[in-house]
Sequence to fold (303 residues):
Amino acid sequence: MSSPVTLPVSAEAIARAAQLVAAGQPVAMPTETVYGLAADATNAAAVARIYAAKGRPSFNPLIVHIADLAAAQAIGQFDEAALALARAHWPGPLTLVVPLRDNTGIAALVTAGLSTIALRVPAHPAMQALLKATDKPLAAPSANASGKISATRAEHVAASLGERVALIIDGGPCERGLESTIVAATGGPLRLLRRGPIDVDAVEETRGIEAPGQLESHYAPSKPLRLGATSAGPDEYMIGFGPVIGDASLSPTGDPVEAAARLFDLLHRADAAPQPRIAVATIEGEGLAAAIRDRLRRAAVPR
Fold:
């Protein structure tokens, strides 16, 4: 595996990273928690390239980094409890899961099709500089291959991802070295979803802990979903791929990055269609394609 370009933090390095983000590419950035693989959260193809770089990922909701509370409120709906947490701990290693506002431009792949979004205002000056330079919300999961240990140094990123990432900004070792605390403020009592550097006390009415990386239950269509279809039945909405044509296609050319970028949008479209059932063509390939198949298998499980 070839080594990616690694640059120390500087104005020139941030400008280069911003150019790559504008071109739809992910870049590895230091934060105060762990290194993140950052891409434009409004560009579905860019977000899909994050997943492609990580290997065979699970399509869990991604944390979106924004510059400040005002930027967060433009994307998510904050009740008083969420506002109190944000004002107390931002910028810093706290992620808040809140209801997603309409028409924000956030790619559905970022939220895994859910109506909530995970937001964080990072404290690291390099990540803040990139947010300012791009003027975009940045989706940034940990910068490591799926299933591997999170990276807390630039050399960890290089060893894990190699040439799958075009640029690593080296900000030295991460100050915290532990992923952010995640709290859901989606109505009712606050819920602690992942323990981390911020110790949320009992006054904040946390209730229970859910598995890390699973910010909410996974989105799945309300209709029965048939996999491996080559054509649609009379009562099915057909999602095609490659040579299999349907009512809509994940990717007519069989490109897994394009398919990942369109996955949740097309599932929502199929769910809203008049047909009572959904059929999906076979997604051939490994890596990202295998992750799409896994996500569709879980969506097809009868409930």
About this structure: The chain has two domains: 5-204, 225-299. The longest strand covers residues 94-99.
